[in-house]
Each structure stands twice: as structure tokens, then as C-alpha cells.
Amino acid sequence: MLAAEVEFMEKGFVAAKTTDIARRAGVTHAMLHYYYRTKENLFKQVFQKKIQLLADSFVTILSQEIPFLEKIQQGVSAHLDFLAANPRLPLFVLWEIVGNPDRQETCREVLLPVFKKVIEELQEILDAERRRGASVPESAQELMLNIVSMNVFTILSLPIAMLLTETREEDRDQFLQRRKQQIVRQVLSQLTENHK
Amino acid sequence: MLAAEVEFMEKGFVAAKTTDIARRAGVTHAMLHYYYRTKENLFKQVFQKKIQLLADSFVTILSQEIPFLEKIQQGVSAHLDFLAANPRLPLFVLWEIVGNPDRQETCREVLLPVFKKVIEELQEILDAERRRGASVPESAQELMLNIVSMNVFTILSLPIAMLLTETREEDRDQFLQRRKQQIVRQVLSQLTENHK
DNA sequence: ATTATCTATAGATCTATAGATAATGC
DNA sequence: ATTATCTATAGATCTATAGATAATGC
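^ Those are the sequences you sent over. The predicted structure of the assembly is below.
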């Protein structure tokens, strides 16, 4: 099962081979089919698990009971750290969804409730802040999308970004930390903006 | 060749089949091998072309001789429109690069010079603006990364975003236009921020 | 003569299962 | 008895080429 996760995440459904998965797991491939029947079946279990993980990543944006701006800062930071620990997750999910639209259903079932809940909580925080007199112009959904966009893209494009900025492999973490600060700054700039 | 582009872009290198490409092109698959020798060879040509297209997308961020803020606004807008017209491009490139690191070389060769040039021009614009007394706090690279992040992610995540926001297929363009305005606002918020 | 095209097929994988045998749980 | 495991292989693809034949350019 772990072997299947690794193979599917690295190569995708089509390129991953049941023989390789079996070999990695240290069993004969006949056993794999004995337990999971089909490749598709095995994949579905892995996919479900990974979608769940993606849903969890949204939750990390909400954080502890601390002042508003720090809360956002912590949320962005935790979200990016989560993605950095699961760097193949977003690309894998996006790829499999566009490649096989049937999988959107799983996606909807798992992600939608979590997404709605996070947006709701975030909206409450924003509203509370506004009642305090702060100028928080955006909808929670927009704020969330901005954060997720920049964080996820940072991870997705990391190989290309490192190529283009001529960053070496051992400076990866440093590169991510610097980018994290930029993202926090960018997100906060809209939240602290003086309107009118 | 066009058939190959479509098949590779939709399915990726591994899942695309030379027989399907030939069928789509209306020739026997023997002919395909006669002209291109190997699948890998055919793919390389397609990949090169698509990387070139991606490089072009960076250039659209720079735009005509108009006032600074409008210039940025136009750039963001043109970039997103470009991506919306080539929605599979970013995912395809990212997927093939992580799946086969050998392809990073092509990527580097084509993208790096274009990327450097765009950054350079953008930096000049920012510097000129700063000399005029405007407060433009960021490096061109950071600004560029912010714009590209939000625009590309918008396209990458469009299927999921439409799922989560319960947007119907026919409202796709409207959804994109709304998101575009949000992105422009977000980008400008940092550029017009009052520092200190 | 050289280039283009077709049919047929070799050779390599890959998924999935059949059928035989060993291990395990009442 | 039921469940787990192995070997062997059927059946389906897919890439790539061989070999024969038709079309094209000097």
C-alpha cells in the first residue's frame, strides 16, 4: 500500500506498473491482484487518501488563538511547510483529475465539506476583525485563494524556479524560507492596506 | 505533428500512444515511425515547442508604453488571457519535468534567457518608478513570481476551483474575469502600499 | 534512384487470472 | 475449510521495423 502510494505519486496512474508496485512491496504481483483485484481499485484507495491529505492542508491555514495578523502569518507558514513536506501531492492530484474527470467526484466529496468549513471559519475571523474597526476588504474565499495560489505554486514550480534562479539543491530550504517571507508580506499588504 | 501535440498534451508522454497519434493524424502508424523514428523523438519536438510557448507567456507580462500601474494591470491581464487560451500548458510542462528530469535541460536552455530578459526589463521599469519617488518595494523577480504564481495557479486549479465554488461550465469565463480582477488588486496592493 | 506508403509481424511489456500447493484457524 | 502464496501463462497493447509496392523527381 505504501509502495503503491510511492509508485502512483511518482509516475501517475498510467505509468505506474503493478509489477513495480509489487516488487517494491516485496510481494509477487499475483498477490497484489489477489488483495486489490484491479490496478484501478488500488489506485482509488491511494487517490482517496491523497485527496484527504490535500483537504488537511487547507486546515493548517487556520491556526491558534493569536492576534489576527499573526494568525494569518502562522497559517501561511504552516500551509507552505505542509506542502514542502509533501511536494508531489498537488501535481499528482491535479494531473489525475484532468486526466480522468471521473475522479472529480471523489475530489468533490472529500474536499468540498472541508473547504466550506475553512472558508466559514475564516470569514468569521474577518468579520470579527472588521467589527473591531480594522479594514479587511476581502472575502474569505478570495484571501484563501490568494494564499493557496502562492503556496501551492511555489511547490509546483520549485524545480523550474530553482532552474531559473540558479539555486542549488542544497539551498532548497533556504529558497523556500525566503519565498515564504515574500508571500506573507504580499498577503499582509492587502490586509493592512489603507482604504480610501 | 498537431495530432502529436494534442495527444501528448492531453495524456502526457507515457499515456499517449503512437497508434492514437497516427490515427488522429490520419496516417498509418508505420508512417509516423518512418518520419520521426521514435516516440521519444517526436515528443522532444512537441516539448520544445511547448516550452517555447511557455517562454512567450512570460513576455506578455511586459506591455506597451503606458503609465506604470496600468502597465502592470495590462500585463497581468494579458498573461492570464494567454494561459486561459492554453489551459493545459503549465500542467503538461510541470508534469513532464518532474517525471523526467532529463527534460530540465531543454527547459533551462529555452526559458532562462527569456526569463532573465523579462526580469531585467521589469527591474528597469521599477527602478525608473522609484527615481520618480514612487514606493516600489520589491525586486522585479519577486513581483514577477507573485503574478505568475496567481495566474498560473488559477488556470491549473480551475477544474478544482470550479468544483469547490460550484461554478458551472458555462460560467467559466466569468469566473476567470472575476479572479483576474482580484489578482490585479492583490498585485497592486503591494505596489501602492505606503511604506513606513 | 529515391522517397513515401502499406501490410504484417517481431519482441517487449503489462494486467489479470488459472491452477497447484502451502499455511492457518476452527 | 478457508485463506495466502507461488508459478505459469493467456490475452491485450504498444513500439518499432522488415519487406513489398507505389509514387515522385531527375
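The longest helix of chain A spans residues 104-131. The domain at 44-192 of chain A is CATH 1.10.357.10 (Tetracycline Repressor; domain 2).

Shout if you want it in another format.
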